[in-house]
Amino acid sequence: MTESFPYLIAVDGGGTRCRFAMTAPTGLLRVTLGSANVFSNRDSAIHTLNAGLSELMEQAALPQSALANIPVYAGLAGVTDAQAASEVANQLPSRVVEVEDDRRSAVVGALGSKNGCLMGVGTGSFLARQVDGQISFIGGYGPVIGDEASGHWLGKQLLRSVLLAMDGIRPHSPLTQDIGARFNDDPAKIVAFSGAARQAEVADFAPDIVSAAKAGDPAGQELMQKGADYLAGGLRALGYSSGDPICAIGGVAACYQDYLPAEMAAALTEPEGTAIDGALQLARRLAKRAKVGAE
Fold first, then answer.
1. What predicted TM-score, i.e. pTM, was given to this entire model?
2. Which end of the chain is more exposed for a tag (fewer CB within 10 A), N or C?
3. 3-state secondary structure string, the chain?
């Protein structure tokens, strides 16, 4: 017997917000809730996921029990391995569910089925390349040990530069002087902030760095160039070749255009869609596999 799936659910769960979408005979339904980071707070993420799925059922005027038969694809921040994905999937009501980290849905949303590269650079960062439907990744290791070129990385590097300037190890720039003044030129306040600030709060310095770099500030330009060098090196490590389109997604990615090698800068292209669009495509693929398996 062949099963059909008139409803599909896709989830794009990030550290700031979690987006849900459901295809239905009447159209596309959407819900947006708060954070769903599986690594930083799994219980809260699972609560958010189930709350969003429940809201979709209400919008569709379906009983909650119907969730058991609706395929769910969830791309979630903080899914570090297969065990974490399985543990989250087991907490969701659908019997046809796939959970993985949020990078694949971003790539599929941006590139569709096309070959090309992706720079995902916002509060965090990762790089990817898709060739004939196969996706390779670099980065995405989080703020403690990775996320180079990201907004958080830029902010953290800036605060380090301010402290080095305060210690007389390197010269101040207008940018480092301005940031130092925000902390009353007190290194202890910078240290305290760095230890207590959320990732997004540190990333809030990124626009200051981008603006200062454009104005010729040497500290800002140095940080932007270091970030761009990482991105260029990562793309080459993934196998970037001349002619590959490069999609830049996230609030910081496009800011590196002036600092990338000319060929890469010229290859930057607008994404076809968003991560939730990619998650919907992956939900359709999941449903097709489930349908074949049920025959």
1. 0.85
2. N
3. CCCCCCCEEEEEECCCCEEEEEEECCEEEEEEECCCCCCCCHHHHHHHHHHHHHHHHHHCCCCHHHHHHCCEEEEECCCCCHHHHHHHHCCCCCCCEEEEECHHHHHHHHHCCCCEEEEEECCCEEEEEEECCEEEEEECCCCCCCCCCCHHHHHHHHHHHHHHHHCCCCCCCHHHHHHHHHCCCCHHHHHHHHHHCCHHHHHCCHHHHHHHHHCCCHHHHHHHHHHHHHHHHHHHHCCCCCCCCEEEECCCHHHHHHHCCHHHHHHEECCCCCHHHHHHHHHHHHHHHHHHHHC
